[in-house]
Amino acid sequence: MSSNVLGRVFIYGGKGALGSVCVNKFKSNNWWVGNIDMKENESADANIVVNGSSSWQEQETNILKQVKEILQDDKLDGIICVAGGWAGGNAAHKDFISNTELMWRQSVWSSTIAASIAAHHLKEGGFLSLTGAKAALDATPGMIGYGMAKAAVHQLTKSLAADGSGLPSSATVVSILPVTLDTPMNRKWMPKADTSTWTPLEFISELFWQWSNKKNLPKTGSLVQLITTDNKTQVIEE
Predict the structure, then answer these.
(1) Which tens digit of pLDDT belongs to each residue from 61-79?
(2) What is the phi/psi pair of residue 130, to 5°?
(3) Which is catalytic among the residues 146, 203, 209, 211?
(4) How far apart are CA 139 and CA 156, in angstroms?
(5) In whole angstroms, what is the distance from residue 18 CA to residue 226 CA?
(6) What is the value of pTM for the model shown?
(7) Catalytic residue check, 12
(8) Are the C-beta atoms of 224 and 208 separated by less than 8 Å?
C-alpha cells in the first residue's frame, strides 16, 4: 500500500448513494479508501464484496480476513459505516417480521462488523462513525423494525464509547442521526416531498472528512442529529 497517502479509511456501504459520495470525498483528498458492500465501487482502492446470503458470523469472519490481507501491517485512520436501508410496517403488517429481519441485517449486522474491524485495525485515536436515525429516538409505530434496528445502533455507539469496549485507546465513535437523505432513490419515490428538509449527501461527507481529520470532532459516544430546514443543516450533538 502506498506510503504517500494522507490517511486510510474503510467505507462500509461504499457503493450506496451516501457511501459513493464519501468514497469520492476521501479519494479527492489523497486518502486510501476501501469499500465494503454488496457490490464493488470502481473508485475505491480496494473492495470487499459481502455475500448477502452468509450468516452474521460468516460475514464478519470473511470481512475481517480480507481487511487483514488488504492492510497487511497498516492501520486505519477511520471506519465509516453508512450501510443501511428502510422498510416500514407496524406489528399487524404482513411483512412485519421479514422487514424487521431485513432492517437488522442492514443496520445492526453492518454496524457491529464495522466495530469489529475497528477493534482489530483502527489506529489509536482513530475514528469510527455509525449511522442511526433521529426517528429512532422516539416511538416508530409505522416502521417498527427500522426503529428497533436504529435504536440498537445508538446503544452500540454508547457501549463502544465506554471503557472496556475493545476499541483502541482514545478512539472516537459517533453515530449520525439524519432524518431524510437527499438521495436519487428518495427523489424517485417521493417526488412531491419538501426536499428543503432533506440533508445533502455532500454535507455529510464533508462532516466525515472533518471528523476524520479531528476537526470539530464530537465527543465520543455522541448521537449527532442532522436537522435540515430551508436547505440549511444543523448539527446537534447529544
Answers:
(1) 999 999 999 999 999 999 9
(2) -115, 170
(3) 146
(4) 18
(5) 14
(6) 0.95
(7) no
(8) no
pLDDT at 170 (0 to 100): 96
Nearest to 214 by CA among 174, 178, 155: 174
H or E stretch at 32? strand 32-37
**What distance in Å separates the CA atoms of residue 53 and residue 145, rounded to the nearest whole number?**
20
Which three three-digit cell numbers place residue 60?
A: 464478519
CA 143 to CA 157: how far, in whole Å? Answer: 21
Q: Exposed, middle or buried, 57 (CB in 10 Å: 0-12/13-18/19+)?
A: exposed
Q: Under a CB-based contact definition with an 8 Å cutoff, are residues 85 and 102 in contact?
A: yes
Q: How many CB atoms lie within 10 A of CB 46?
A: 18
User: How many residues can be counted in the chain?
Assistant: 238
Amino acid of residue 172: T
- Residue 161 to residue 152: CA distance in whole angstroms: 14
pLDDT in tens, 136-178: 999 999 999 999 999 999 999 999 999 999 999 999 999 999 9
Contacts of 99 (CB under 8 A, 6+ apart): 87, 88, 89, 93, 145, 146
Q: How many CA within 13 A on the CB side of residue 99?
A: 18
Residue with cell 429512532: 136
Using CA atoms, how far apart are residues 54 and 203, in angstroms rounded to an integer?
34
**Residue 221 neighbours by CB under 8 Å, 6+ apart:** 157, 158, 160, 161, 162, 173, 174
CA 91 – CA 218 distance, rounded (Å): 36
